[in-house]
Request: fold
Amino acid sequence: MRLHIFGLAGCLLAAPVSGLAAQAAGSPAKAVVVGGPREGTLAPDFSLPWANRETVGSIDAPYELWRDRGKTVVIAFYPADFTRGCTAQMQSFGDQYDTLFGSDVVVLGVSTDSLATHRRFAASLDLPFRLLSDPDQTIARKYGSSGDGGRTRRTIFVVGPDGRVKYRNLQFNALDPKDYVELGSAVQAARGG
Reply:
C-alpha cells in the first residue's frame, strides 16, 4: 500500500491511497496524523501537574521536563486510566520496571485524566512512577499524541540525557510483547548501554 504524505501545520498527514478509493466508494477512510518531535530533535519542554501511588503533587511544584536533563526519560502518552489496554500497559511498566527501565530512568505516564483519578490508578497498580495530567491535550499536541474524543493517543518517547528524542513509537501496542522489547532496547541505547 502506498502512502501520500501532505504537510499540515507542522504535522504530517498520511492517508492510504486505497483509503481514498474506499472513501469515493462510500466507506470512510481513516487518516493517521503523524507528528511530534522526530528522533534526534530536542524534546519539547513542558510542565504538568502529577500524581503517584502515594499523593497528588503540589500545584506549586509541577513536573518539569527540563529538570531531568542528564537523565533518560520515558514519556508514555495513553488514553485513559482504568481501561483495558492502559491498565495492561501501565501494569507491564510497573511489573518490569527494574528490567525494562531501571532506577536511573524517569518514567512518566501522561493522559487527560484528573490527578485524583491518576492517584487511584497508580495506587491500584502500585506504580513506581508519576502520572501527569494533560486535560486539554496541550502537551500531547506538542508530541503528536493528541487524539479524538478528548483522549490521548498511545505513543512512547524516549528522551536521552542530552534532551533529544532517541526513540519514538507513534502506535505503541500495549498488548504486544515485541513493543516492550523494542522499548527496552531503546532505553538501554539512550542510557549508553
User: Anything to note?
Assistant: The two ends are 37 Å apart (CA to CA). Residues 38-191 form a domain with the Glutaredoxin fold (CATH 3.40.30.10). The chain is about 30% helix and 25% strand. The longest strand covers residues 105-111.
